[in-house]
From TrEMBL:
Entry membrane topology: Multi-pass membrane protein
Transmembrane segments: 458-479
Presence of keyword Mitochondrion: yes
Residue stretches in coiled coil: 428-455
Keywords of the record: Coiled coil, Membrane, Mitochondrion, Transmembrane, Transmembrane helix
Pfam families: NCA2
Organism: Solanum pinnatisectum (tansyleaf nightshade)
Keyword Cytoplasm attributed: no
Highest rank taxon of the organism: Eukaryota
Principal location class: mitochondrion
Stated name of the protein: Protein DGS1, mitochondrial
């Protein structure tokens, strides 16, 4: 469920103040004010201090204020000054509210880009059960009565979505203008704030008060903008009214500590009122909660779970049935059997194939030594037969093939008188030599076959290990995806890098639109473009800090982001910076497609 980020800490402070005031009024009719006013104020102050601490813990980093470079040596002094604290809290308030508005605006813009059918489905099925029954009844009534029910639903959906887009866009416009005015004011008086923060604090607080009053004039009337035909179901009737500094404070050149403290508290009160007001009006125009958008699947799931629960209850021991106990026992036995047959035994077999079998691979069906003995015996037999047949000693370099040709020639000659030569000739001897040759060929074939089988033992073992390998690969991919956390721009994966590069694209677009507004003399629109550029730079600043620190690029990248936020820097120089950022810094480079 989406909620304004400030509601976690900031948005509850004004709520506590409202309830404190209500309880104070109720109790005042029974007890004297002096007995409880101090106690309630202490509770409010304690809550404010604790919420402010939690706020700073939630947001550890944000776009720095535009102080001059000479302030780097006096960072401790600047951080301790009340000036920096006030400005940082105001900037953080605007950044958080703009981020919440931007998320809802992007949702409605995505809905506006959908087809008529998708918008009609949203109007009927994604706004809760009440809208579902009302929308269905209205659709059936229009179809039966007028005959163009779908067209009416399309028009209602377009009006519903465009109203929220226009409202959130207008609100973002004024907040971005307010942000740009504050940033430009700090950039203008930055040197004075660094040199003498106490002296320049009074004029700065007066300027901040004036900017708050301008913001009140811009968005304070939004509570009364609702028209009779508005599709907003909820109502809000309280206006935005900021506290004003007393006239006596605005005229003085040097304030006392008490006056300064009161002025700072007044600024914080205005920040709290702004948070309360924005939380109320944005919540009314926000995107539906997740449970509202998916209420139909959730309802079906609840109904299915209920039916399954009733079915299980009928077969449980609570009603005297032993079916579930029997099913659990059978499932346990099946699981054990599956583990033994398909996991444990195959792994043991693979282990034996990889270790035990290969240790005994020398003991095959045919050994090379036996084949060599048969070959040597055949060579001696051929040599003796050749020497006896020719009557001379065989050449030492004669091969078995040459001597075998002599045997075959003698064998053919002996076959002319087979019976006579079988008993008194060399026919029987030639036959025995051929049997020995046949034996040698068979042994060589068996040796080669044994070597093939031994080689395939490795292949069979690898094939048996493939399921485990693929399972391990899937687990590694899941762990890698979870570790990279691609959902946001702060992640490590491809999607996070794309989102960070898109932030740079948005910064470039706002810089170019800012230049265009300046050329056309549209000062108000130019301030809005500067504020939007600051917003996207703040998101980029928060997204890249951790990655840039890990790669050692943070100091230079931080300075580039600060330079992009400078109002007076030339547009051409800013575009060169964004181009360099996309090409140089590792955290902003696209991942290769092979990864």
């Amino acid at each position: 469920m989406d909620s304004p980020p400030e509601n976690a800490g900031k948005g509850l402070k004004p709520t506590i103040s409202v309830y404190t005031e209500y309880l104070s009024n109720r109790i005042s009719s029974y007890f004297p004010a002096a007995s409880y006013s101090n106690f309630l104020s202490r509770i409010s102050n304690f809550y404010r201090g604790s919420s402010g601490t939690s706020k700073r813990r939630r947001r550890n980093t944000s776009l720095p204020l535009p102080f001059p470079s000479s302030a780097e040596s006096s960072t401790a002094v600047c951080e301790a000054s009340r000036t920096v604290g006030v400005l940082e809290d105001i900037m953080e308030c605007i950044f958080l509210n703009m981020h919440y508005i931007q998320k809802n605006l992007e949702y409605w813009q995505s809905k506006a880009q959908g087809s008529n059918a998708k918008r009609a489905y949203f109007m009927i099925c994604e706004r809760g059960p009440y809208a579902f029954f009302n929308g269905t009844a209205q659709l059936l009534s229009d179809c039966v009565g007028e005959g163009f029910g779908m067209q009416h639903t399309y028009c209602l959906a377009s009006s519903y979505i465009s109203e929220r887009i226009n409202f959130l866009s207008s609100l973002r416009y004024h907040l971005a203008t307010f942000l740009a005015q504050i940033y430009m004011k700090v950039d203008k008086v930055g040197e004075e704030l660094v040199k003498d923060p106490e002296k320049s604090l009074s004029s700065l607080l007066v300027d901040m008060n004036d900017l708050f009053l301008k913001l009140e004039a811009s968005i304070g009337h939004f509570h009364a903008v609702r028209q009779q035909s508005s599709s907003v179901d909820e109502s809000y009737s309280f206006p935005l009214i900021f506290e004003k500094l007393p006239e006596v404070n605005q005229e003085g050149s040097q304030w006392t500590d008490c006056e300064t403290r009161d002025a700072i508290n007044l600024i914080y009160q205005n920040v709290d009122r702004l948070n309360t007001y924005l939380a109320a009006i944005v919540t009314i125009h926000r995107k539906p909660r997740r449970v509202t958008r998916y209420w139909i699947p959730y309802t079906c799931g609840i109904v299915g779970i209920s039916i399954c629960s009733l079915w299980l209850l009928r077969h449980s021991s609570l009603v005297g049935s032993s079916d579930i106990d029997n099913w659990i026992r059978e499932a346990k036995e099946s699981t054990v059997s599956f583990w033994n047959d398909h996991v444990e035994q195959p792994l043991i077999s693979i282990r034996d194939d990889l270790f035990y079998t290969f240790r005994k691979r020398q003991k095959g069906a045919m050994e090379p030594e036996e084949v060599q003995l048969t070959a040597d015996s055949l060579h001696r037999m051929l040599q003796a037969f050749t020497e006896q047949t020719k009557g001379e000693k065989a050449p030492p370099n004669a091969t078995d093939q040459e001597m075998l040709e002599i045997v075959m020639m003698r064998y053919e000659k002996e076959l002319m008188h087979p019976i006579q030569n079988l008993f008194s000739g060399e026919l029987s001897r030639a036959l025995l030599i051929q049997v020995q040759k046949l034996k040698l060929d068979i042994e060589e074939a068996m040796l080669e076959l044994d070597q093939i089988l031994r080689a395939n033992e490795i292949n069979f073992a690898i094939l048996a290990a493939l399921p485990a390998f693929f399972l391990s690969l899937i687990v590694i991919m899941l762990v890698r995806t979870w570790f990279k956390q691609d959902k946001k721009a702060e992640g490590r994966g491809r999607v996070a890098r794309i989102q960070r590069r898109l932030l740079i694209v948005e910064v470039e677009r706002k810089i170019m639109q800012l230049e265009s507004c300046k050329e056309q003399g549209q000062e108000k629109d130019a301030q809005c473009m500067l504020g939007l550029a600051l917003y996207y730079l703040d998101r980029l600043y928060c997204a890249v800090e951790g990655h840039a620190r890990a790669t050692g690029e943070w100091i230079i990248l931080r300075q580039d982001i600060i330079d992009l936020a400078k109002p007076d820097l030339q547009t051409a120089h800013k575009l060169r910076i964004t181009s360099r950022m996309e090409r140089v810094y590792d955290c902003l480079l696209p991942l290769p497609k092979t990864q």
